[in-house]
Amino acid sequence: MRELRAVEFAVSTFEREWHNLSIVFYGDNQSAMIILRKGSMKRELNEIARRVEKMRERMGASFKFFWIPREMNAEADLASRDVDTDDWSLQGWVFDQATNKWGSPDIDLFADENNAKCVRFVSRLPCRGAAAVDAFSLPFLWTGALLWCVPPTALLCKTLAWMRGVRARGILGLPYWTSHPVFPRLFLPDSSPPFVKDYLMFPEGTQILNPGSCPIGELLRSIYGTVGQTDPSLQPLLVQSIEGAKASSTMRVYSGSFDKLRAYARERGLDPACPTSLVIFSLRQVQEGKSLATLKTLSASFNHFVASPPPLVSQLLSYVHQSSRRQTTVSHHGHVPRSHVDRLVQYASQNPHDLPVLRAAMGAALAFAALLRVSELVSLRWDDLNWSEGRLGVRVRRAKNDQFGEGRETFVSIEDPSPVLSLFQQYRSLTASSPWLFPSLTIPELPIKPDSFRQDLTQLCSRAGVER
């Protein structure tokens, strides 16, 4: 069905251009090629073939349909799966309100056959009914008419430059995006620039956009609205389910990665939610020598906060990821020798009343011996420790690789006497009032945060002369 509709769409799009020509169609679906040649017993499929044949007769053209293996049709197959994320438009009532205020525009410079607001429109790519393709390639379109301009956010600066350059008269639609480079040119601190005669501004949250052919946002809005109509009490649960699908630590990583993409995109006037911005920023990350893990985290954060990129973009990102493996390898930190931990313990023993030093040294010794991550270390309570016959039992309540949430237990051998045991006893006497093994110094009822512990450990290494 999809292949048949693709042929029908192509014929209807180029009906004028293909008049009296011989056209050859190649497709990787054998059934579709046969149906277009001979028809089908299924009414719906046969109707498409008949419509194609009627258009061919009107055109006076000759059509031939050939099957080719998918391997020979890779470029067209991949392009057919692409989704245009910039074909959104303003809703009809917004257009009506603008035209009632400023008059009816003569041409829509950024549209397609599905979202055009004027009879005459210019498209990004060839499509049915378009008066022209690529508004920036035809300067005469910008003069002598009232323009309707709602360009993709990445083209706002270029659109404004063209409108000012040719002194165009038009209605420009854009989001209220204060960090976009075009914003200070349109919204001065004390007044409007002389080339802006009037404007309309809609309250935040007003639904003024049609999402276009990219279905994800529209589908989510539809589901959210249906849930609200059926049982409004379930809407918060839906939001929590989406937000809580990942662990809090994973969400922090995703948020940090996407914040970097957002900052990079907005500095350059790009839309952070556009897949092209993801590709550009990924290339920048490769250029800066970032690891493959960093690139994959970036893609995962985009998938979570925005949507999965179209297949063509996903394939391109895969190439970028593969190329990063062939860049200069990154030298990771080597294994921490036991001598480093001993030096930290020795330094802490010489400063028995410096609680931050004792806490960092104690944590380093315990993490080294029990093979604990920082997140696991700082979540330990005193009652998670069990001392028995020179062996310290450590119960880890929440481990990163604990899929069933059952926790795990590990054991550490500590000689008696030993510097570590002495340090342990001294540290215990200073933190006895807190239930946490590594409490916050400002709020003892709470554990220290992982980042704060890392900072303390870094400072301790520097003071003790240990190279990290």
Automatic annotation (TrEMBL):
Keywords: DNA recombination. One of its GO terms (biological process) is DNA recombination. GO terms for molecular function: DNA binding. InterPro entries: DNA_brk_join_enz, Integrase-like_cat_sf, Integrase_catalytic, RNaseH_sf. Residues 331-468 form the Tyr recombinase domain. The keyword ATP-binding does not apply. This is Tyr recombinase domain-containing protein.
